[in-house]
Amino acid sequence: MGAGRQWQKRIVHATAYLCLAFACLVAPPAGAGGDLTGEPAPDFTLKSMDGKNLRLSEYRGGVVLLSLWASWCGDCREQLNDLNALHSELRERGVAVITVSVDSRTERAIELATDLQLQIPVLLDARQTVARQYDPRFMPMTVLIDPAGTIRHVHEGFELPDTAVYLAEVEQLLADFGPIAEEG
Questions:
Q1: Residue 111: which H helix or E strand, with range?
Q2: Three-class secondary structure of residue 69 per DSSP
Q3: CATH at 136
Q4: From CA 11, how far away is CA 28, in angstroms rounded?
Q5: What is the total count of domains within the chain?
Q6: Where are any strands of DSSP class E within the chain?
Q7: What span, in angstroms and rounded, lies between the C-alpha atoms of 113 and 107?
Q8: Fewer CB within 10 A of the end CB, N or C, for the chain?
Q9: Mean pLDDT, 10 residues at a time, over the chain (184 residues)?
């Protein structure tokens, strides 16, 4: 790895920790998503874009970054780009990044995912059963789940510094629970 890339990673990590420190000073907004913190993550099974059924509980034992999004949401598009970029790094560390489109017309979600060349799992919630379980007030809704299946952090909406906050929170979960081996 080149010296420039090493400095870039150090800057990203330092920014993540600073953002987390700042985020801890600001109370999260009250509401449905914030009420989930500390609760068991509601389990669900949905079809992915490739037609496979995926169940959230299959990821128990690892850290999960779950994002609920919709094709009409501009902030969701930005977040999906960032999550797609983080996917390889996080996967190598045993962290699953899973996204759930709440679009009632799945072709819109598939079109956006294809346009963005997403490599992360895209699950389709056309009946909005998962959306009802998690009850987001703002899109996207990002939920960080620990290896025991407990929701540790909930974020609603998205701004560019949020990616650094997610990274810092993932780092803390990995530190709390120890290294997680990637599954085949």
A1: helix 106-115
A2: strand
A3: 3.40.30.10
A4: 26
A5: 1
A6: 45-48, 53-55, 63-69, 95-101, 122-124, 141-145, 151-156
A7: 10
A8: C
A9: 53 41 37 76 97 96 97 96 92 94 97 96 97 96 97 95 95 85 46
Cα distance between residue 172 and residue 176, in whole Å: 6
CA 158 – CA 63 distance, rounded (Å): 20
Q: Which residues contact 89 (CB under 8 A, 6 or more apart)?
A: none
pTM as predicted? 0.79
The answer to whether the Cα torsion of 141, 142, 146, 149 is positive or negative is positive
Distance between CA atoms of residues 49 and 36, nearest Å: 27
Radius of gyration of the chain (CA): 16
Token output for 108: 């819109």
Exposed (0-12), middle (13-18) or buried (19+): which is 4, by Cβ within 10 Å? Answer: exposed
On whether residue 183 sits in a domain, the answer given is: no
pLDDT, tens digit, for every residue of 87-116? Answer: 988 999 999 999 999 999 999 999 999 999
Residue 170 inside a domain? The answer is yes
**Pair 94, 181: CB distance under 8 Å:** yes
The verdict on residue 184 lying in a domain is: no
**Do the domain assignments include residue 182?**
no
Q: Please write the tens of the pLDDT for every residue from 72-85.
A: 999 999 999 999 99
Facing residues of 41 across strands?
A: none
